[in-house]
Amino acid sequence: MLITCPYCGPRDVSEFAYQGDGNRTRPDPASTDGDAWHAYVYERLNPAGPHNEIWQHAGGCRAHLAVIRDTVTHEVSSVRFARDHGAPAHVRRKSGAKA
Amino acid sequence: MAEYSAFSLLRHALSGNREWKPAWRKPSPKPSYDVIVIGGGGHGLSTAYYLAKEHGITNVAVLEKGYLGSGNVGRNTTAVRSNYLLPQNTRFYEHSMKMWENLSHDLNYNVMFSQRGVLNLAHTPGQMDDLARKGNAMRHLGVDAHLMTPAEIGRRVPGLDMSQSARFPIVGGLMQERAGTARHDAVAWGYARGADRRGVDIIENCEVTGFLRDGDRVTGVTTSRGEIRAKKVAVAVAGSTGQVLRLAGIERLPIESHVLQAFVSESLKPFLNTVLTFGMGHFYVGQSDKGGLIYGGDLDGYNSYAQRGNLPIVEEVMSEMLAVFPSLATIRVLRSWGGVCDMSMDGSPIITTGPLPGMYLNCGWCYGGFKATPASGFCFAHTIAKDAPHEFNAPFTLDRFNRGTVIDDKGQGPTPRMH
To answer: In angstroms, rounded to a whole number, what is the distance separating the alpha carbons of residues B406 and B399?
Structure first.
């Protein structure tokens, strides 16, 4: 599986850290709406087909990327900078994902 | 007298083995049933079996999209264990272990359950402390577990690199002797035959395409073989849970589907008489009765329904195997494959009534569903028959994520790819 980083060009998936589902929006940190936090933290669309997701080019330029990837064929149809699509709201400090 | 026995083998041998009956019928779906179970994998079949056996509910259909046993029940690495840390998991999986110990007799079908033990290796003193804590938690609830020294491990698994110059020297391990392996296909076939003999219709090549509704209530399903009505509709479809529930209008669940790869080597002479897990990565291995090593490691790590994985994990699993067994460097891989796992947000399953009236849900097995097959079916059948959970599956609700009562054995948090 190759992901075409906007800076670095096509690179092997092992250079990238998966940051998960990109469909979620973090509630206002001051929010005390339990249902909204539950939806953000625990609920997933989990589609079979095109999926919005966040990857980080951890073994390269370290840019956060908004990727559209098909979960049935693994085909990557779109890679853009996540910052152009709003900050990747749920990026963790620890990128423990193994590609 | 049991249908399968030494006597029946002899009798059929004398008549040229021409009179064996098929293990299950191939019925056409009836217009309605008391219970429909969607999914003819291990959990769906065992659910139907225990509905009939424990609760006398025999007007049941199991609907399978493909052929029986074509999903994860025929794809897994066959380990059976109950070595968990948290009491909710330990009680449930230990109940399953006790059912495994009598399963071949109960089904009159040899599932080849082999209690060859599961050994978790430790490579640092800290890991050893962690395993001691887990072993104590297990023993506290009556589950067998004991720590092993490097000398004991070296005698038990002679192929291991026990040297201090190993990349990750082995400092000890935790053994569950009663754990082991079972033949996965036989589990599916045995439950199918047991359910069929009690009157359950097992309908293969029957894909569910939608749900029949009366207001909120689920009253049946539409399938590739027509409409089928039922008082109760149970869903046990593992990696396809999101897809099936989407047909009922439920878009979001605390589940992500991920692909897990597994590998089989060429046949070797007896080499490994237990199931072994490596502690400095994620690698597990057992040896089948045919001699092939069956092994695997981490998920690929991203959402996938592909039933096939990518090469980075292949490389990682092989390198971890060589870290513990350098002598396997020249062994060839016969085949590899991928299965879709329904990874839940806390690594524990969901067996519950709902989420709609008339519907029952069994999912979230991550990559540990095979060992749960007997208890999952037993508890799910109880939940369907009584409209209330059995004590062993009462903690495994769908709303535990909202109520703050998650069961996170690994302490990993809501990152499904890491459970």
So the answer is: 9
Under an 8 A CB cutoff, do A44 and B306 touch? no
**Interval B197-208: pLDDT, tens:** 999 999 999 999
Query: For tokens 């009680």, what's the residue?
Result: B91
Structural domain boundaries, residue B169? 116-180+256-344
Chain B CB contacts of A45 below 8 Å: 242, 251-252
For residue A48, the chain B residues in CB contact (below 8 A) are 242-243, 257, 305
Chain B 1-60, residues with CB within 8 Å of chain A CB atoms? none
Is this prediction's ipTM beyond 0.95? no
DSSP B157: -
Say if B336 falls within a structural domain. Answer: yes
Whether A2 contacts chain B with CB within 8 A: no
Q: What is the pTM of this model?
A: 0.93
**Interface membership of B307 toward A (CB under 8 Å):** no
DSSP string, B25-51: --PPPPSEEEEEEE--SHHHHHHHHHH
**Confidence class for position A86, pLDDT limits 50, 70, 90:** low
Domains with residue ranges and CATH for chain A: 2-26+38-81 (3.30.2270.10)
Query: A43 to chain B: which residues are within 8 Å by CB?
Result: 252-254
E-only strand ranges, A6-71: 9-12, 17-21, 50-56, 64-70
